[in-house]
Design a protein that fits this description.
The protein is an alpha/beta fold and about 350 residues long. It contains 14 helices and 13 strands.
Length: about 350
């Protein structure tokens, strides 16, 4: 089966970081090498190998909105017992508003990190008063909405948000991750950027061309609310909003943002294997051993910041909490707004309970 998987990947011309000829496990990443998810996967896989006792090869399957890689895993690659899907935040957004083949509930959950996204702006630019220039993308939509929320202030309505997007926002399409970073660094087309925690620390943190604007905060798995990010004190989205406007964020636009933000960030870095795989328990045990190893955690946290691990069936509990947040009006508002911004979002009635 492993040889068949390799042959299929090569035949399809997929971007492969290192072909899994001698691999014990193959991790599928739905983005190009160098992306935030690829950076995170390489960091974690390097430590996980020590506790798994086998090598891990990373295979990149990029495509539009990062959907093809996950669809390919769902339809073909999951049938190999040692092929693991590394889904990310863009897949979480697409789960809400795009036609996709994959369904988180159809696989065995292995482990995930309860992460966030960091947003920065050019030091000489005021994002509250100036026209924001930001790179478009599926996983970027929650950040775009956060920018508009912060510009719009308390009780922002959907109509007001649309007006801000039309008059004070440039959502620039067609940029790769490398183009986006280079443009922002050189002060070109972009004056606001965002990255996963690992990628932000690698490419931006401490650099003179970037100033941290906010963290998207950390999802509380007990309350379903967004908590403060301990790695970025006083810089979580709700803290920055309240510091600017004097009140906590609320209203219909906040609720639409909160829904898509939670699906994006909670599901940002999650690993799945086919349901009933004989490797499920061994992978979960390796993740638990890694999470309990202070040496491994120190190496990972140095790159990503210190965020909690969610392992095994606890991932299903997290997904259940997210599904409960899908309210009819909120989902309809989200889909309608994304359509206004140029995304061909669809209303998935099956998600509405």
């Amino acid at each position: 089966m492993k040889k068949l998987v390799i042959a299929a990947l090569v035949a399809l011309g997929m971007t492969v970081s290192s072909l899994p000829v001698m691999a014990d496990f193959t991790f599928i990443v739905p983005q190009k090498p160098g992306s935030g998810t690829s950076v995170w996967t390489a960091i974690v896989a390097g430590e996980l190998e020590k506790h798994l006792g086998e090598k891990i090869k990373i295979v990149n399957i990029p495509g539009a909105n990062d959907i093809p890689g996950f669809n390919k895993f769902h339809n073909d690659l999951q049938h190999d017992d040692k092929t693991v899907m590394v889904s990310h935040g863009g897949n979480g957004v697409s789960y809400l508003v795009d036609p996709v083949d994959y369904d988180y509930y159809q696989y065995d959950p292995i482990g995930m990190m309860n992460l966030t996204i960091i947003n920065g702006h050019s030091p000489g630019f005021n994002p509250y008063t100036g026209v924001i220039k930001f790179s478009a993308g599926s996983g970027m939509n929650p950040d775009m909405m956060a920018h508009i929320l912060l510009k719009g202030g308390p009780d922002l309505t959907m109509a007001q948000a649309e007006e801000i997007f039309a008059s004070q926002y440039k959502y620039i399409k067609g940029m790769s991750g490398g183009d986006r970073r280079l443009s922002f660094q050189r002060g070109g087309e972009l004056n606001v950027t965002r990255e996963s925690t690992a990628a932000y620390n690698k490419y931006y943190n401490g650099k003179e061309f970037s100033k941290v604007w906010f963290s998207q905060g950390v999802f509380n798995l007990e309350t379903g609310e967004i908590d403060a990010d301990p790695n970025w004190p006083n810089l979580s989205i709700h803290e920055v909003f309240e510091a600017k406007w004097g009140v906590a964020p609320q209203g219909e636009f906040w609720e639409a943002f909160e829904l898509v933000r939670n699906f994006r960030d909670v599901m940002q870095k999650a690993l799945w294997i086919k349901k009933g795989s004989p490797e499920t328990d061994r992978l979960r045990a390796a993740f638990r051993a890694m999470a309990a190893d202070p040496v491994s955690m120190a190496k990972i946290y140095e790159k990503t910041g210190k965020y909690d691990w969610i392992i095994g069936e606890d991932m299903v509990d997290a997904l259940d909490i997210l599904r409960e947040q899908i309210k009819p009006t909120t989902l309809r508002n989200l889909v309608s707004f994304l359509q206004v911004t140029g995304k061909p979002a669809i209303l998935k009635e099956d998600l509405i309970k």
